Structures are given as C-alpha cells and as structure tokens.
Amino acid sequence: MNSTTAPASNDALNATFTSVQNDTFLRACLRQATPYTPLWLMRQAGRYLPEYRATRAQAGSFMGLATDRDYATEVTLQPLERFPLDAAILFSDILTVPDAMGLGLSFALGEGPRFAHPVREEADVARLEVPDMDKLRYVFDAVSSIRSALTQPDGKSRVPLIGFSGSPWTLACYMVEGAGSDDYRLVKTMLYARPDLMHSILAVNADSVAAYLNAQIDAGAQAVMVFDSWGGVLADSAFQTFSLAYTARVLAQLKRHGPQGQIIPRIVFTKGGGLWLKDMAALDCDVLGLDWTVNLGAARTEVGGAAGGPGKALQGNIDPNVLFAPPAQIEAEVQRVLHSFGPPHRGPGIGPTHIFNLGHGISQHTPPEHVAALVEAVHQHSRAMRA
Amino acid sequence: MNSTTAPASNDALNATFTSVQNDTFLRACLRQATPYTPLWLMRQAGRYLPEYRATRAQAGSFMGLATDRDYATEVTLQPLERFPLDAAILFSDILTVPDAMGLGLSFALGEGPRFAHPVREEADVARLEVPDMDKLRYVFDAVSSIRSALTQPDGKSRVPLIGFSGSPWTLACYMVEGAGSDDYRLVKTMLYARPDLMHSILAVNADSVAAYLNAQIDAGAQAVMVFDSWGGVLADSAFQTFSLAYTARVLAQLKRHGPQGQIIPRIVFTKGGGLWLKDMAALDCDVLGLDWTVNLGAARTEVGGAAGGPGKALQGNIDPNVLFAPPAQIEAEVQRVLHSFGPPHRGPGIGPTHIFNLGHGISQHTPPEHVAALVEAVHQHSRAMRA
After folding, report:
1. What is the DSSP letter of A263?
2. Which positions in chain B have a beta carbon within 8 angstroms of at least one beta carbon in chain A?
3. Is residue A378 within 8 Å of A358, Cβ to Cβ?
C-alpha cells in the first residue's frame, strides 16, 4: 500500500491508534486531526540530561550504552520521565549498520565516530554485503525491551516508539570518509570519479537499511525514520541520483504493517533538503522532516496537501539554539513556528498536520529546564490554536 | 540608481565596458549578452597553486601576504597567468574589518582564523564602532596595485577586478564565536536571547562594510561582492531579520559608480540561501551567487528575469569537489551546469545571464590541471551553446 496514493483502511487505523495511550504522534503522522500539536525532539535521550551522563558513565562508553538492552531502555525512557513528550525514539546510533558490515566502529573520547576500515578502493566495495541481522540483534532486543517498558497496565504503549536508521547516502558518507568530514571530499570524489562504485555501495546500504528497519518493526517499532543527515551536502541532481533514489529503494522494501496489523508511519528527514521538497513529495512515506531553514507555511503549500487530498505530514523545525535563550523567548519562537505552519487541520478525515520537533538534534549544552519550557509552550499554544 | 528598477544609461554602460579588455564578466553582471559564459572561481588565488604556496612561504604567514601590497598583487594575478579566467578577485580575507575594529585577528598554523577579543558581553558591543578606514589602507593599496598590474598598454584593464567583504551577519558570526564554529551556539544564543545586542553589532558591521567597499571602489575595484558565507545557518525569518536586512543596509550605502563613471556591479552570495531567492531578489544588487544545491534553471525562472525585464544575473554553482574527478567527468558536469541554466541570452538589451563559478571556494587539494580542464570546458561548451 502506498501512503501517497491509497488511504489506509479503518481497521488498520483503529489497530494503529488503539495500540497506544497517547496517539497524537501517530495520528499526526497519518494526517489526522489531534487536540494539540504532538512533539518529540531529535536526540531527546542524550548528553544534555544529567541522568543520561550518569548512565553513560556506568556503561563506560557510548557503544557500551547502545549495545546493552537495559541501558538502552533506561536512556530511551529518561526524557519521557521529565517531559510529556508524545513519542519515544530508540536510543542507538546511525552507524550500527556499517559496523555490522565489518567496518569497525569506534568512538574516541571527545571525538566523533570513526571506522577502522573505511571503504575507499574497488576491492573494499566488492567486499560489502548486507550484514547478517543477527549482528544487530542488540538493537532489536533494545526495541523489544523499550516496548515492554512503555507498556501500561491496559496493554497499550504509553507513547509510540520510533525506530530509525541513517539513509544509504548518509551511511556511505561515513563509510568512505571513515569519520565525519567538513568537505566530503573523499566520498564526493568517488561519486564524481567512480559513480559505479558509489552506486554499488548505495545499493548494499539501501537493502541493509530496509532489512534493519523491518527487523525493528518486527521487534515493535511503531514508526520508522530515515535520517538523511548529509543529503543536503549534495549538488542538485546528485541529491536525486545518489540520495533520494536510494531512500526510495529502502521505502519500497519496508513493511507497511507491524505485527498487530497496525500501520507503521515512515518519516524521511533530509537535513538541508528544503530545496528538494517537491522531489521528496514523491517518496512513499508519510512524514517529511524539515530543518529550520524551511518556512513551514511554504512547505505546507508545496507538499502538505489539502483536507481530504494526498500530501505529507510535516515534522520540525525550530532551531535547537533557541533553547539557549530564556523561557520567554523560547515561548515566542515556539509560537512563531506554530503560526508559520498555519491553521491546524480539524478533521474529520485527512489534512495538513504538523509534528513539532527541532530542526536538528538537541545540543548537549541545552539546559533541561529550557526543554520543559519548550514542551509546555508547544502543547499550550497549539491547544489554544484549536480552541 | 537602483539596478532592479532603473536601466543603466548608455554612457555609463560604455564607460563600464570600455574600461576593460575582456568585458564578458561585467556584461554578464549587467545581464547583457556575451559570446560565451564568463567564469572566475571563488578563492582562485589560493593554496591549490604551488606558486601561491611559494609566495606565502616567503611572506611568512597568511596575514603577511594579505597586508603586503606587492605580495597581495602577486598572488591575485597568479591564477590569471595559468588560466584564461574572466575576472580577478582581490586577495584578502573577509575578517579584515573586525580586525580593524580591534578584535585581534590571528591565523594559527593549520587552524582557521581566531579573534583575541571576541564580542560576547554588552560592554563589548558598546565599544564597537566603524573602524578608521586608514587601518585598512593596506587593502585599498592592494586594490590600486592590482589594478596597475592589470592595466595593459592600451590603458584598459585586462579583466575586471572584484573587491569584496564578508556580510554583516557573517562577520558577526566570527566576532561573537571568536573563531569558526560547528553549531553557531554563541552567536545564535545572543541572537535569540539578546536580539538588541545582535542588531547593534549588525548595524556597526553594515556601516563598516559599506565604507570598506566604497573605499575599494575608490581604489579601483570594478565590481564588489558580499560574501554571506554563514547566512544559510540561520532559521527562516531569522535570515531575513539578521542577515538580509543588513546586507540591504550595506547596498543602500554603496557607490553605484566608480571614479571613471563606470557602473560597479554588486554581487551577493549567501551560501545555503537557495530557499530565500525570492527575498534576495528584492536586494539592490545585480548578481546573486548560488551554491551547488540550487537548480540554476529553477533559479532563473524564480529571479533571473526575462529578456528586457528586471531580474538578477546568476553566478555559480558547480560543486568544487567535481574538480577531484578526471577531466572527462569535469567536462560532463560543466555541461550539466551550463545546460541547467538553459539557453543563453542573445541580446540586444538585457536578459537572463549566467556567470560560471564554483558553489563555494576551491579546495586546497585541487589539482591545478583539473582547473584548466574546467575553464576550457566552460568556455568551449558555452560558445557552442551560442553557435
């Protein structure tokens, strides 16, 4: 079933919404009206929380956290204990998949991720294959464990759990560069000089990401998100060829339904992709994530759809740096973002919807009490906009 | 005279085009037909050239180069000796203006620029003022010296010389951060928490940049470019308020004519600004620079204007990383970029024009012979498109 062309059945919708206590996020993903604008925050389980830093110190390392089911569950739930967020997101890293391919992921203290065996030569590319998903069992175990921890006495999940992966292109950036990069020189050199090798890498990545996300869905993920964190560094035309086409290849292989028949909404977020929204509108996904450079009202006009018609839900897009300002300014910026999206869809049926989020991951330097101010402002003002 | 509303007089146009031997760049800036697409490269005088590295070694440091009239002249001309480029650009740094404000610019070996006295507190902001332009005399002396060196026996300049400055916002980023930044946390914290302070800095910056560019025009710069290198990190709405408005304040104070009555075209380049082209179309400038994420054909439709009508010339936008591919791929990408702009304007009168450039500064790792391939491909294929 293609979300862009066929409406979901009422049975599937009921199975989806009755699986959770707080269904606002899932409803907004599927372009249904909600009493307020749901929100969650990219990297909401993270270093800005003292309780996260304490758990990480216990675990000894980032990968120590991510590969231990109990630790991963604990840190995934931490932000939900503090703030009335409308979704949980699996605590993990986007580079687990290439690590399972044998590239040797490590996190040096105070630095970003690094691969011991970057993919640079034709022989490196030839060796790549879709990894045995058993090597990623720790991720699927974490998903099951988090779902159990979220399950309430009535058998429903308190909020939905989002699974995720890096996009094929974003994984390729790290795999070729071997680490983060300022200029993407190595990966772009391969792209322009040896597009055949780049396509080979991306094909393996796309099939790996699809298998990985499907296993997360089987384990209990109630929505999935593809982070195309580095799609925005590509040139026009290269983006469509080397990023978008492979995100589409992932989506084409994804399960549309979870184990209980519920619909699994798909979110695609290309940081810096605002110029390509019309291209992304053709993706078989439900939600497009937007960074802070995009005007939500303009995006709504371009791809948000009309009441009853096809379109994408929009997710985003406040600048995480707003959270360094005092609460009064945070509230003002929240109102600006909510109003930039425009009048809420009131139902019945489908229409333009907005899921509030940051335009990028939350900074480790963010004061947690400012996050509380943001969450309260979003809920309060978005309710008022519907009154 | 506002370039967006009033056509230039024929006398002024004649004075402009007869001041140079190669007038293709100036003609394209003013949206007049040319026999081929002119090109120059951002950072064309730079580390990728062995002769530049030799001169820099002699000078001892980057600022040793930039502050010495003879060295600055030598390195400005170096790329023109190798490649038939259609414009020269002053060799300097965008941070000369805040340095003249007393912030203490230095370049540590292997690192980027750094200010000894960043602007963080209200008292720092209160101390800022438009610097005495005598402190920037070395820049204006370099402009005069380069113009002399470019002057041919017939009294004309071989190619036009472009002067430049950082935009008020881009300068503010460095002034507040004190150095380059990944997240712009300090400058954005000020922007969101104390917009009054940010506006004060930007007002001083805008008036300083205007005085600086006017002095470059007096010294002989034949076009001027404002580099809004960090405009693209701003959120929608913050860009318009904190970057675009102050670029407009610069343009409002700029001399339209040089000492010989010639028109001085103005170029504005916002890296990552492709989403805001319609806003930028209202600027009183002649040319908009575009990075590689923008589709030139779409930009032409949006702001390039029709034959005889108002609009902006477009400059850009090949990914500098293309230059790491072999010549055959470089040629193919050049053709792609030229064709993405579409059919050349053939005159008479004004119409949509394209100035070929990179979408960002050339990488220090670029093989010079690949630059030669790029330049030849642009000239050859753009001539063929007009045949």
Report:
1. B
2. 183-185, 188-189, 191-193, 232, 234-239, 272, 274-275, 292-295, 317-319, 321-322, 324-326, 329, 333, 336, 340, 359, 363, 365
3. no
- Check if the beta carbon of residue A173 is closer than 8 Å to that of residue A184: yes
> Which residues make beta-bridge pairs with B88?
B161
Any idea what DSSP says for residue B179?
Answer: B
Is B56 catalytic? The answer is: yes
Nearest to A289 by CA among A43, A42, A89: A42
Q: Using alpha carbons, select from A209, A82, A58 the residue that is nearest to residue A139.
A: A209
* Coil, strand or helix at A267: strand
Q: Which one of B48, B236, B333, B365 makes the best mutation probe of the A interface by having the most chain A beta carbons within 10 Å? A: B236
Out of A183, A322, A359, name the one closest to residue B363 (CB).
Answer: A183
**pLDDT attached to residue B4:** 45
pLDDT of A339-377, one tens digit each?
Answer: 999 999 998 999 999 999 999 999 999 999 999 999 999
For B148, other C-beta atoms within 10 Å of its C-beta total 11
Chain A residues whose CB is inside 8 A of the B192 CB are 319, 321-322, 324-325, 329, 333
Instruction: State the catalytic residue, choosing from B93, B228, B284, B286.
Output: B93
Least CB-CB distance to B184: which of A183, A238, A321? Answer: A321
CATH topology for A10-386 is: TIM Barrel (3.20.20)
B28-317+349-361: CATH topology is: TIM Barrel (3.20.20)
Q: Distance (Å) from the C-alpha of residue A311 to the closest C-alpha of chain B?
A: 20
CA distance A64 to A57: 10
Chain-chain contact of A293 with B188 (C-beta, under 8 angstroms): no
In chain B, which ranges are continuous DSSP H helix? 10-17, 24-29, 50-59, 62-66, 69-82, 96-98, 122-127, 137-150, 168-177, 185-193, 195-219, 238, 245-253, 277-280, 296-299, 327-341, 368-386
Backbone angles phi, psi at B42, to 5 degrees: -60, 135
In chain B, domain spans? 28-317+349-361
Cα separation of A208 and A191, whole Å? Answer: 20
Q: Residue A154, Cβ neighbours under 10 Å: how many?
A: 7
> Inter-chain contact A189–B325, Cβ cutoff 8 Å?
yes
pTM of the entire structure? 0.96
Counting one residue from chain A and one from chain B, the pairs whose CB atoms sit within 8 A come to 103
- Residue B6 — pLDDT band, cuts 50, 70, 90? low
Distance of CA B301 to the CA centre of its chain: 23
pLDDT digits (tens, 9 = 90+) for A43-58: 999 999 999 999 999 9
- Angle (CA) B360-B361-B364 rounded to 5° is 140
